[in-house]
Specification:
The structure holds two protein chains of two kinds.
Chain A (H helix, E strand, L loop, with lengths): L1 H8 L18 E7 L2 E8 L6 E5 L10 H7 L4 E5 L18 H15 L5 E6 L1 H10 L8 E7 L4 H13 L3 H13 L1 H6 L4 H22 L12 H21 L10 E6 L20 E6 L5 H4 L2 H16 L12 E5 L4 H12 L3 E6 L2 H13 L3 E6 L5 H15 L4 E4 L5 E2 L7 H29 L3 E6 L12 H21 L4 E8 L6 H4 L1 E2 L4 H18 L3 H14 L3 E4 L1 H12 L1 H7 L6
Chain B lengths: L7 H24 L6 H14 L4 E10 L26 E10 L2 E2 L2 E6 L4 H22 L4 H15 L2 E2 L10 E4 L11 E2 L2 E2 H16 L5 E2 L12 E5 L2 E4 L2 E4 L2 E5 L4 E3 L5 H13 L1
Antiparallel strand pairs in B: 1-2, 2-3, 2-4, 5-11, 6-9, 6-10, 7-8, 10-13, 11-12, 13-14
The chains are: A alpha/beta, B alpha+beta.
Chain lengths: ~600, ~280
């Protein structure tokens, strides 16, 4: 309390000019003693607002947070500090002074000094994140830390278990993950070599750092960045690696936490792979995952407002107690054709993971029903009436969604219709109808939402429902297979175009799935009575195959997680894809059969 | 088509047996609490029924707890029998029993929950639609396989899944008659009373000869108008880990159909909900 009063009376004993021109919020500097070392602490904003502590990484100082802090200071009490050995803070005498326990204690010391009465929100990057995990996973941490936003810095204990798990079960996927992460962590090994690493920083790297940031990290050069003390910070900080990496990874401790954690994955991070956070739910039951399309440093130095937005959102939601209950992954998902079949199953699968959903269908009551079910399993959903074949309507829908809920993170272009008939049987009208819904519906959806996602610049994922018919020719599915083949190719082209924006595109190719598409399929050249009988027969055949839409939904979620571009689902779809590669002629022969 | 074989006195006796069965299920439901196993629940149900004067069972009493109410991960018919699953807070449960008194058979299903379960609440409310739908379709004398398909379509529209298809023969219902067999009462083979099997076997054969089936499923053998008599109808719907059903007797006469009794727990629950909604 005493501190707080003093601060209000004399806000800044040492006025500290802010290096970033856009900032107008004054900084107040103070010193906090922790473990015998003075830590330089910098505060902005009204101390009555929620306290957010920003912890920087290596080889940075608190300056790396300039943009994020300026953005947050308007409605938060923003606190930054130079970690031990960096910037204006004290330097430990030996390597033991860089141990994680001390670094974690530093964070609590700062929290106690700047916000003695209320718990704090922590946001951390790189090594700051590694050391904040130490504090967040300390027993009883939830008393002092309300929320934790972490970027590009795993808990070394969690990482140790992650490596152990993969060494014990060396599946091809696990081995690949180990190799990829190993290749990205070469510098950590280098940091353990005596003389070499400090000499590199002293003689060359410190001077070259702005260029490294510009060329590899896409960070624009500007005055005040990097900090003037970079050379000594970088050399001293090497001890962080040497003091902690080997002992902790060798003997990882069990470190769960009750603190709600927001994991921000940086899509183009060169140092920390996305898969490092696989299975993190084991330690963090209240986990929210977000993705920012940025490199390791451009997240803070170029996209500060985006990161600040994520922090502001998470702080508000934890304050509202929303993170109690199912893990809220905070994503916004748009699904067309969500009133039944694969669309409905996908909506429910996303809802179970706590996503927010915008559900569209030509049949509004069915979309509303899906929305109700989504809310039953833990999501938030809004239903919309939409004819995907109407381009103007899709544009209006996208604008409506953006205005009401924001730009979606995932768009599933699922709406489609079935049609069976040979090429010569199929009338022009039928061709138009099939292409309007199955192809133009996807085009409209990709265009409207792809534009929004690109403009937002935070990446995303577009999922298009193609079909095994996209690569499996059949004389009786002329129009349908053509439309789906077009969707497959469209997805591949779009994927290439949107990759630089961090937006991934997946085409899902299901085989025979038991949904109502067969009950609404049309057939060329049949009377209504024959058509009804045929619908019934095909529906029964699909029901007997018995592949549920829920399994397709699970594959869609996996595709969104892994970014797999083409996903055949069901045995027959996979077999046909393989066969089409081994012997296209065989598939051409089979296309003459009267099935479908 | 055979003539409707029962008079009012018979129907009264059937109704009494059904009332008795539901009464016992409600008693067990009031007794049940977290920690109770399925076996304990069926034993209690059996004890209660026998105390009320039941002499034989069409089938042994069943109890399913938790995701077993939706028959998740059921691979063999043996999994229908009560097991060691313990009831926990928030779990749904289903009790199913079929007592026989003086040859008059009832076959009932009772769904419940302990504590709070919003998914169960929703399913329980939606179950009413199926009771009305089945009656409407049978009154229109639609073939039984088409009624089955209409129920399936409604289940799909609701976004649930059909759990009665897990029952042997995928049946949504079966005919119930006055058992007159002589075998030993109270003895069962694979959960069905010996007398039941005798009666059912006889029915199966004689009905097949007329191109009908006493079992109501979605196949070719149910492609006939509803046979006059009594049908135990048991639509069983599921969503995620929660399943619910009702089972009660439907009276089908030569030109009409009606539920044998409307004074049943689930019907009373819907009426109550309607009144509170007002």
């Amino acid at each position: 309390m005493r501190n707080r009063r003093i601060r209000r009376a004399a806000p800044s004993p040492h006025p500290h000019p802010h290096p970033h021109p856009s900032s107008s919020v004054p900084e107040r500097r103070r010193t906090v003693h922790s473990g015998g070392l003075p830590l330089a602490v910098f505060e902005q904003g009204d101390p009555a607002d929620p306290t957010v502590i920003l912890v920087h990484g290596y080889p940075d100082t608190h300056v790396v947070w300039d943009d994020v802090a300026a953005e947050l200071a308007a409605d938060h009490h923003v606190v930054r500090y130079d970690v031990r050995g960096a910037g204006e803070s004290g330097v430990p005498h030996s390597r033991a002074g860089y141990r994680l326990e001390l670094l974690g204690a530093d964070l609590f010391a700062v929290a106690d000094a700047v916000s003695p009465d209320a718990p704090v929100h922590v946001v951390a990057h790189d090594w700051g994140s590694v050391q904040s995990w130490e504090a967040v996973t300390a027993p009883g941490a939830e008393q002092r830390i309300v929320s934790y936003t972490t970027m590009s810095g795993p808990s070394l204990d969690h990482l140790g278990h992650w490596i152990r798990h993969r060494m014990r079960r060396p599946t091809p996927r696990h081995v690949k993950q180990l190799l990829v992460q190993g290749a990205h962590s070469w510098y950590i090994t280098a940091f353990h070599l005596p003389f070499l690493a400090p000499a590199t920083w002293r003689l060359w790297l410190a001077r070259a750092w702005p260029r490294v940031l510009r060329d590899l990290e896409e960070v624009t050069e500007r005055p005040g960045h990097p900090q003037a003390t970079l050379k000594q910070d970088a050399v001293r900080g090497i001890e962080l690696y040497r003091a902690n990496m080997r002992p902790t990874l060798r003997n990882p401790r069990e470190r769960p936490t009750e603190v709600p954690v927001q994991l921000v994955t940086l899509a183009r991070d060169h140092y920390v792979g996305e898969f490092l956070s696989e299975g993190l739910e084991r330690w963090v039951p209240r986990l929210t995952r977000r993705t920012v399309n940025a490199t390791h440093w451009s997240a803070l130095l170029e996209q500060g407002p985006v990161v600040a937005g994520l922090v502001r959102d998470f702080v508000a939601r934890t304050a509202a107690g929303e993170v109690q209950g199912p893990p809220d992954d905070g994503r916004l998902v748009v699904i067309t054709g969500a009133g039944s079949g694969i669309g409905r199953a996908t909506a429910l699968a996303f809802a179970e993971r706590g996503a927010a959903l915008a559900l569209a269908d030509l049949d509004l009551p069915s979309a509303q029903r899906t929305a109700e079910l989504c809310e039953l399993v833990g999501g938030r959903a809004t239903a919309y009436l939409l004819d995907v074949s109407d381009g103007a309507a899709v544009d209006a829908f996208a604008q409506q969604v953006a205005a009401a809920h924001g730009v979606p993170d995932v768009v599933v272009n699922n709406a489609g219709i079935g049609h069976s008939g040979t090429f010569l049987q199929t009338t022009e009208k039928e061709w138009q109808r099939v292409l309007d819904v199955n192809l133009w519906g996807v085009i409209h959806g990709c265009r409207a939402f792809g534009t929004l996602m690109t403009e937002r610049g935070q990446g995303g994922h577009i999922v298009n429902l193609a079909s095994a018919a996209a690569y499996l020719p059949s004389k009786v599915l002329a129009a349908y297979a053509t439309s789906k083949a077009a969707v497959l190719m469209l997805s591949e082209c779009l994927g290439a175009e949107l990759a630089p924006h961090g937006i991934r595109v997946s085409a899902i190719c299901p085989g025979i799935v038991n949904t109502n598409i067969t009950r609404t399929s049309t057939f060329s050249g049949l009377t209504p009575a024959e058509q009804a009988a045929k619908q019934q027969r095909v529906s029964r055949m699909y029901a007997r195959r018995g592949f549920p839409p829920e399994k397709v939904a699970a594959e869609i979620l996996r595709a969104v997680r892994t970014g797999k571009p083409v996903v055949p689902v069901t045995f027959e779809a996979k077999a046909a894809r393989l066969l089409g590669r081994l012997s296209p002629a065989l598939l051409r022969r089979a296309a003459r059969l009267n099935v479908g | 088509m055979p003539r409707f074989p029962y008079d009012d006195r018979d129907l009264d006796r059937f109704r009494e047996t059904q009332q008795l069965a539901y009464h016992c299920a409600e008693q067990v439901a009031a007794w049940i609490e977290p920690g109770v196993t399925e076996r304990q629940a069926t034993a209690e149900l059996r004890r209660c029924l026998v105390a009320a004067g039941v002499q034989d069972f069409f089938h042994v009493p069943f109890a399913w707890f938790g995701d077993r109410t939706a028959f998740r991960h059921f691979h063999t018919p043996l999994q229908f029998f009560a097991g060691n699953r313990r009831l926990a807070e928030g779990m749904p449960y289903v009790l199913d029993c079929a007592p026989i008194v003086d040859g008059y058979t009832a076959d009932i299903g009772y769904g419940g929950k302990v504590g709070d379960n919003p998914i169960w609440d929703r399913l329980a409310a939606d179950l009413q639609v199926y009771r009305e739908l089945i009656l409407r379709e049978v009154r229109a004398r639609r073939p039984l396989d088409e009624v089955y398909a209409a129920v399936d379509a409604q289940i799909a529209a609701h976004g649930y899944d059909n759990r009665h298809r897990v029952y042997p023969g995928r049946v949504i219902g079966h005919q119930v008659t006055r058992t007159s067999a002589r075998g030993p009462a109270g003895v069962n083979v694979f959960g069905f009373g010996v007398r039941t099997l005798q009666t059912l076997g006889r029915e199966l054969i004689s009905e097949r000869l007329h191109g009908r089936s006493p079992l109501w499923a979605d196949g070719r053998s149910s492609r006939h108008a509803p046979t006059p008599g009594l049908w135990a109808v048991e639509p069983h719907i599921g969503f995620r880990e929660v399943g619910i059903k009702f089972e009660e007797l439907l009276v089908v006469t030569e030109d009409d159909a009606y539920w044998l009794d409307d004074d049943l727990p689930h019907v009373r629950r819907w009426t109550r909900q309607k009144e509170t909604a007002r």
